[in-house]
Design goal:
The protein is built from 4 helices and 14 strands. The radius of gyration is 19 Å and the shape is elongated. A hairpin with a 2-residue loop joins strand 5 and strand 6. Strands 1, 2, 3, 4, 5, 6 and 7 form a 7-stranded antiparallel sheet that branches. The N terminus is likely disordered. By secondary structure, the chain is mostly beta strands.
Length: about 180
C-alpha cells in the first residue's frame, strides 16, 4: 500500500469497484467492478484508492488478470492472504479526472445521482438516489417523500439532462410515474 499526501477527498472520488474477497495465498483479491472500462481501469501500474481509518490510501496494482467478468488483482505491499482478507469489502475509487471521456449524452452514474428530477410541466418527481440496470436498460431510482419511483433512462423519457445544473427533466408516458412508484 502507498499512502498519499495529495489533497484529495474521498467523497470527491468515483467508485470503480469493491473488493469481494481474498484470492489465493499470495495477497491477491477478486474485485466486483463498478466501471464500464474494467480492462483499462484494472491493469498493472494503475493506482486505486481506498479509505483506511479515515485516511486516503493508494493501492498500486502489480498484477491483473480476469476470472470471468471480475478482475483478480495483486497490490504493492499486499503479499499474504491475511493482508488481502483485511481488504475484503472495501471500495476502490479514482479521482474524477482519471475517468475516460464519454460520448455526448452518455453519463457516468455519479453524475446522475443527486440530480433533481421534474416533469416537463414543472412537477417535482424527486432526487436520483441510484442508477440500476445495464447498458441499454438503465433506470433512475428517484426518491421523493415516502416512496421512490423507477424511471427508464431513455431519450424519449429523460428529455433534458443537465449534470452541471444537477437537473433532469422527464416526459413520462401517462401513468408511468404511478405505475413504477413503490414504498
Amino acid at each position: 500500500m502507498i499512502a498519499t499526501t495529495e489533497e484529495r477527498s474521498w467523497e470527491s472520488m468515483v467508485l470503480v469497484g469493491r473488493i469481494a474477497r481474498a484470492h489465493g495465498r499470495w495477497g491477491q483479491v477478486i474485485v466486483n467492478p463498478e466501471t464500464d472500462f474494467p480492462v483499462r481501469r484494472f491493469r498493472s501500474g494503475n493506482v486505486l484508492y481506498t479509505s483506511v481509518d479515515g485516511k486516503l490510501v493508494g493501492l498500486r496494482i502489480t498484477e491483473a488478470r480476469f476470472q470471468g467478468e471480475r478482475p483478480v488483482l495483486g497490490f504493492d505491499r499486499v503479499s499474504s492472504i491475511d493482508d488481502a482478507e483485511r481488504l475484503a469489502g472495501v471500495e476502490l475509487r479514482v479521482p474524477e479526472s482519471n475517468l475516460e471521456p464519454l460520448p455526448v449524452d452518455v453519463f457516468y452514474e455519479h453524475e446522475l445521482v443527486g440530480c433533481e428530477v421534474t416533469t416537463v410541466d414543472g412537477k417535482t418527481v424527486g432526487t436520483v438516489t441510484e442508477v440500476q440496470g445495464t447498458a441499454g436498460a438503465n433506470r433512475l431510482i428517484i426518491g421523493g417523500g415516502d416512496s421512490e419511483v423507477d424511471v427508464p433512462l431513455a431519450d424519449s423519457i429523460c428529455v433534458r439532462i443537465d449534470t452541471t445544473g444537477r437537473t433532469i427533466v422527464v416526459d413520462p408516458p401517462e401513468g408511468l410515474l404511478d405505475l413504477n412508484r413503490h414504498a
